[in-house]
């Protein structure tokens, strides 16, 4: 413990637990079998798919009882369109993240229990989300980022100037989906 915050030592660097969780949730199974570092595998995958998408939770959840991967838990907004595009394409799905008011920033494949979303506000959520994204970007370079986020959620993210080549923001992901789809097409995403 350092100054009241939990950290995990990982190969000579100190990575906040939120960042480590995000890295593990994004890593493919071959990185979890012990033969290959999750960091090495994720850095290689980041070169193959150099873009990243972050969207926000919705109040519409598909399940009420069982856990589901984050991308599969939500309905509404742009979730069905994202699932249709990247659902079976794991390298792309691993570059999709959901910003939630309960769990912070989570990978598309991270399993979540259904919950009642709460209003934004806790400073702890802001700091945890920022630490997680900084830790992820330190390992997984991103050339372009697409933020499908309402304006209220943007404050939770750190400024990524200098770490990401271009950031594209669409505040209304439901009405702005044609613009988002055009961006994914330009990127060559499925």
Describe the structure.
Helix content is 38%, strand content 22%. It has nine helices and nine strands. The strands form three sheets. A five-stranded mixed sheet has the order 6-5-3-8-9. A two-stranded antiparallel sheet has the order 1-2.
The averaged pLDDT comes out at: 80
The helix tally amounts to 9
Helical content (DSSP H or I, runs of 4+): 25-40%
Which strand-content bin applies to the residues? 15-25%
Structural class: alpha/beta
| C-alpha end-to-end distance | 43 Å
Instruction: Choose one word for the global shape.
Output: globular
Reading the helices and strands in chain order gives EEHHHEEHHHEEEHEHEH
Instruction: Report the sheet with the most strands, covering strand number, pairing sense and barrel closure.
Output: 5 strands, mixed
- Unreliable spans are 1-16
Key features of this structure:
disordered N terminus, alpha/beta, 190 residues, 5-stranded mixed sheet, single chain
Question: How would you summarize the topology of this molecule?
Answer:
Elements: E1 7-10, E2 13-16, H1 17-26, H2 29-32, H3 38-48, E3 51-56, E4 68-69, H4 70-73, H5 79-86, H6 90-93, E5 96-100, E6 104-107, E7 111-112, H7 123-139, E8 142-148, H8 151-154, E9 164-170, H9 177-187
Parallel strand pairs: 3-5, 3-8, 8-9
Antiparallel strand pairs: 1-2, 4-7, 5-6
């Amino acid at each position: 413990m350092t100054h009241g915050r939990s950290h995990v030592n990982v190969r000579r660097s100190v990575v906040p637990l939120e960042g480590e969780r995000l890295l593990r949730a994004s890593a493919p199974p071959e990185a979890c079998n012990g033969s290959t570092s999750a960091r090495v595998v994720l850095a290689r995958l980041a070169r193959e798919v150099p873009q990243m998408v972050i969207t926000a939770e919705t109040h519409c959840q598909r399940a009420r009882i069982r856990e589901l991967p984050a991308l599969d838990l939500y309905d509404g907004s742009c979730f069905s369109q994202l699932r249709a595009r990247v659902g079976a394409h794991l390298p792309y799905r691993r570059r999709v993240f959901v910003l939630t008011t309960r769990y912070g920033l989570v990978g598309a494949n991270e399993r979540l229990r259904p919950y009642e979303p709460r209003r934004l506000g806790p400073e702890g959520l802001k700091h945890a989300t920022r630490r997680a994204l900084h830790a992820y970007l330190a390992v997984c370079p991103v050339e372009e980022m697409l933020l499908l986020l309402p304006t209220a959620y943007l404050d939770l993210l750190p400024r990524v100037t200098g770490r990401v080549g271009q950031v594209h923001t669409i505040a209304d992901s439901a009405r702005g989906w044609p613009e988002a789809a055009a961006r994914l097409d330009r990127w060559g995403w499925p």
